[in-house]
Amino acid sequence: MNIRTIAIAAMMSTTMLVGAAHAEKVLRWTSQGDALTLDPMGQNEGPTNSMNGQIYEPLVNRDRDMVLEPGLAESWKPLGATGWEFKLRKGVKFHDGADFNAEDVAFSIARAQAQSSDFKEQVKSIKEVKIIDDHTVQFLTDGPNPILPNEITNLYMMDKGWSEKHNVTVPQEFEAGEETYAVRNTNGTGPFVVDQRLPDELTVLVKNPNWWGAANAEHNIDKIEYRPIKNAATRVAALLSGEVDFVLDPPLQDLKRIDSTAELKTVTVNQIRTIFFGMDQGVAELRNSDVKGKNPFQDKRVRQAFYQALDVAAIQRVVMEGLSFPAGIITSPGVHGFTKELDARRPFDPAAAKGLLADAGYPNGFTIQLDCPNNRYNNDEKICQAAVAMLAKIGVTVKLDAIPKSQHFPKIKNRVSDFYMLGWGVPTLDSHYVFSYLLHSKGSWNGTGFANARVDELTDTFAVETDLAKRDKMIAEAWSIVKDEIVYLPIHHQVIGWGMSTKLDLPITPNDSPQFRWAKLQ
Amino acid sequence: MITYIARRMLQALVVMAAVSFISFSLFNYVGDPVDNMVGQEATLEDRQRIREVLGLEDPFFVQYARFMQNALQGEFGLSYRTKRSVTEMIAERIPATLELVFVSALIALGLGIPLGVFTGINRTSWISKAVLTVSLVGVSLPTFIIGISLIYIFAVNMGVLPSSGRAGTVALGGWKTSLLTVDGWRSILLPALTLSLFQVTMILRLVRAEMLEIMRTDFIKFARARGLPENRINYNHALKNTLVPVITIIGLNIGGLIAFSLITETVFQWPGTGLMFIQAVDFVDVPIMAAYLCFVALIFVTINLVVDILYFVIDPRLRAEGGH
């Protein structure tokens, strides 16, 4: 009997004593970064939305396959071109006991539209919230908005009375001198209630016995303890030593190690995030290139040469150790508008690529700079290094500038990058999100200078087209133009891997947001 | 004496001003905080509005003047990341860092001095040679590796200590301590050991060198000639005389330990100021970074000031110069 068995035996006996007394199911988990605020409209960011989504609830939720399902609204229907009507669930109570009704919906939408809200974009099409009765509301929109329900799945409902009482009718303003009540205190309708909140240290949630879904609850969790652990190796160690039951973001290279441990398992799924390179086709001359007086990226042959020089299968095999799905377009399976045909790639063919470059007038290649983040995506810098080597084989000399994300992203938005890596997630799960930000000539993240009148027109039209069959055709046409023009160089769809105890059953979702309302602990 | 101290304090102020100026000017190169403060859907107008509200559009000197004006009143604003008061956040996290430094200093002294004395006296024993060789690990391995190795040995393989975090805290007034509970000690042990290894090696080698030096001096020979017991010579006479430089070095190192517990705190998710600083750097949380750097500068300046004053008290030559 070694020290470890003694320790485990000691631990087990204490757990069993506690277990006999309460039989309480405590789920302990960790991830890199804590929620930034518990104010549901303060910050539109993955971990924050995910934490707040255990406490608060939206009108429309997503099931484990990312399909819309009723949340606080039991049903919804479009009102032709003028808006949407939502029937609210009856008998829902906030954690403090107040009733949830149409007033709260109107209030929450208004709060999301406040200047200091980070969810303004999601509700900007809503021009008025009309209360029909206590459990019916109409969102009247500024023109038709076919995807309104998709846009509000992270928009959580707050209680009007509570917010007024605590003076948090708007999210915190940046110029405010002190933190507001809603940053650390909550009053949601969700399956879990905040018991203790020490930002960056410990957050304890307990089961909400009065949850409207409690009778049919899938989960059997009494208590959730969340402790962020910034360092990846320490996170994995906490899982291996049994101190936590679930790690949201183990490093991909550690998945095998976790899997090979008897009491642990891993689950993976493709993420709603595609990694790609952008090429500035808009400027007359590239900023960091030896080609002067013209922009090589304006020639489609050059873009195609780059495309065919990239061996994404090798990137998948060597850099990602198999944990990625090579991509043919810049959006992922699960997003409306994605098809397998679109996702097929042109063949990897360095010889053809070299020929294309020569045809375009660069038989000896040219030099260019690739801007790359080094702390944002899985293996981001390594992917860029691989691309540098692959492009060198067709004579293009690439200087790599791999820097932290907080310096990388401004380069794209300020339009000072010639050639850059970007990854794009789609919270609405609709192609419109990709087109309006990345492909529309006025898209705020379109760093390519790509401006195609037809794509702009289609993007603007399918934003408001309520005839879904017609809309789908437009989306398909827009994608085929973009794919044919080679606006971006798609690399792959990222993979999410979660590590957990074999005692835990928690379905993985492509949006990387654990839903503990589905968690079962043995 | 008073003019000497006044002059030292004036110099300290100049150092503080310089540190704040240099650190503040570096923030222009760490990236755009607004990117992290809003979701990717935020419009350009919205970003612009936030930049204006935060005063990021003002010229550098205007921003710096505003920062200094607030800082002098002890006001560092709200963290961009957590939207909480920076002063409050630092105050909350200082106990964790100070306790970690305190325990690691205890370990460093508790291991370093006896081992230094032992290796100094028994120069040729194989135990001394082994200790000296092993102690090299303390200086040559990066803190990160030491920390992770300790976690794997004690938390993952043996399962006897927690791998990270600070458990078992008890509030004593405004001070949250983890030194009063078994859980607290269990969680502080590994990070404190990691942080102390470098210091152990340094103190061990320093004490050993001093011991070797002192054992050759005349008063030790006289003590031997008088027939005093070995232990008394070693610990009462020799050790006492080695301690002056050791204490100076330790004093100066405490500042370093507080400032550079960054890596140890990150590896062990120890909720101190170092971890907070690393998180702030990732997020471009300028108010936290600025306040933290000023805080560290203040610690260094204070410790140096105290050391200077101590020298003044100890060393009569300085007093003579002061009298000119």
How would you describe this structure to a colleague?
The complex is a heterodimer of chains A (about 525) and B (about 325). Chain A is α+β, with helices and mostly antiparallel strands and about 525 residues long. Chain A folds into two domains: about 30-205 and about 505-520, Alpha-Beta Complex (Dipeptide-binding Protein, domain 1), CATH 3.90.76.10; about 270-495, Roll (Dipeptide-binding Protein, domain 3). In chain A, about 30% of the residues lie in helices and about 20% in strands. Chain A has 15 helices and 19 strands. Chain A has helices spanning about 5-20, 45-55, 100-110, 150, 160-165, 230-240, 255-260, 300-310, 310-320, 350-360, 380-390, 405-415, 430-440, 455-460, 470-485; strands at about 25-30, 60, 70, 75-80, 85-90, 125-135, 135-140, 190-200, 200-205, 225, 245, 265-280, 325, 365-375, 395-405, 420-425, 490-500, 505, 520. In chain A, the strands form five sheets. In chain A, strands 1, 8, 9, 10, 11, 12, 13, 16 and 17 form a nine-stranded mixed β-sheet that branches. In chain A, strands 4-5-7-6 form a four-stranded antiparallel β-sheet, covered by helices on one side. Chain A is globular, with a radius of gyration of 25 Å. Chain A starts with a helix and ends with a strand. Chain B has about 325 residues and is mostly helical. Chain B has a domain at about 85-280: MetI-like fold (Orthogonal Bundle). Helix content of chain B is about 75%, strand content about 0%. In chain B, strands 1-2 form a two-stranded antiparallel ribbon. In chain B, α13 packs across α14 (about 315-320). Chain B is globular and about 85 Å long. The interface between A and B is large, with 55 and 52 residues.
For the structure shown, list the relevant keywords.
heterodimer, A: 522 residues, Dipeptide-binding Protein, domain 1, Dipeptide-binding Protein, domain 3, 2 domains, nine-stranded mixed β-sheet, four-stranded antiparallel β-sheet, 22% strand, globular, B: 324 residues, mainly alpha, MetI-like fold, 14 helices
